[in-house]
Amino acid sequence: MAESEYEIDLGNLLAFDRHHQFVSPSSSREDVAKKAIEQGTKLVQTIADALFALPSREDRDGPIVELPAPSTKLPREKPIPRPTPPTTWEKFAQKKGIQHKNKEKLVFDDVTESWKRRYGYDRVNDDNDLPIIEAKATDEVGKDPFAERRKEKKGKVDKQEKNRLHNLKQANKVGALPSHIQLAATSLPITGTQSMPKKISKDELQHVAGMASTATASGGKFDKKLPGEKAPKHEKKYRKFLPAVEGSGMGALEKQQNENVLNKLMSKHSHEILNVQKAVDMYNVKSDKKRKGGGGGGGQQKKQWGQSSNSSKLKPNAKPFKKTSHKSPYKGKSK
């Protein structure tokens, strides 16, 4: 097929044949794919021939050509965004003739003797890296210079945030708000067009008002109520505590609580709550320590202490499995 039968757009690196028609699809899918690959190979070869026909200049990576302007207009999915209005600084810079210059990101820090970022975390000339700040003649006595620097930095950050919000408001007036900014109050879509705000129902308003009224330390108990405002609903259960001051019926309530605790200890499964063996061991250990701490004297006294200590030890009640027999150990006839 001759080259004139193809339409070539080198600006978009595009080539197509308007007169080409595929035959009726056959039963095999492989045949259709094979014909499409053959036709695509011819179009790619045509684009390559047209590129090598353009004037080029030599480079160490190979010949370089400049593509002409594209002739085919391709449709875009989204509408063209509106131009953003210039900010206050851009207007001032344009009026004074100030031009933007790109600064280097890394700067040498004389304090730490290393290369650091110009802005951001671990930046150059960071106040946190300064152990000493030289006093000035205008400094007031008794003021912390480090605190003054932090206060000044916070003021600059607040001012910058205020200017940013002002620029967004100005851009929103002309409908050029950036698409990545989503305002929750108006529910802006990605296209940047402002939609109608969602109407809030009565139940949602009451729920939000109830949350706001109980958001204080006292749970809204000492807050002033608006005219017509109802008390917020408390869906959960309240915890019950005994009053600190004794009043009518207090003795019966306290007695009932004590009885519940005692009944729990003396119940059928009391062995699971109170370990008798452990309590007996602890008593025996304490009595042994008391005996050793007050010891002294001869061996006979120690022996008496040992006999008395053994007799004073507590033993848990344990029923024997077999009865002991009292038969004489001697068997046989006596002489």
- Using the alpha-carbon principal axes, give the shape: elongated
Helices, by number, come to 8
In total, the number of strands is 6
Strand order of the largest sheet: 1-2
Structural class: mainly alpha
Uncertain segments are 182-194, 297-306
**Overall pLDDT score:** 75
Q: How large is the share of residues in beta strands?
A: 5-15%
Cα distance spanning the termini: 144 Å
What's the main sheet like? 2 strands, antiparallel
Q: What is the H-and-E element order?
A: EEHEEHEEHHHHHH
Oligomer: single chain
Q: Rg to the nearest angstrom? A: 47 Å
Helix share bin: 25-40%
List the helices and strands and how they pair.
Blueprint: E1 7-9, E2 14-16, H1 29-53, E3 56-57, E4 64-65, H2 88-96, E5 106-109, E6 114-117, H3 145-173, H4 202-213, H5 250-265, H6 270-273, H7 276-293, H8 299-312
Antiparallel strand pairs: 1-2, 3-4, 5-6
Describe this structure in words.
The protein is mostly helical and 335 residues long. The protein is 38% helix and 5% strand. The chain has eight helices and six strands. The chain has helices at 29-53, 88-96, 145-173, 202-213, 250-265, 270-273, 276-293, 299-312; strands at residues 7-9, 14-16, 56-57, 64-65, 106-109, 114-117. Strands 1-2 form a two-stranded antiparallel ribbon. The chain is elongated. The termini are far apart.
Concise structural overview:
Helix content is 38%, strand content 5%. The protein is mainly alpha-helical and 335 residues long.
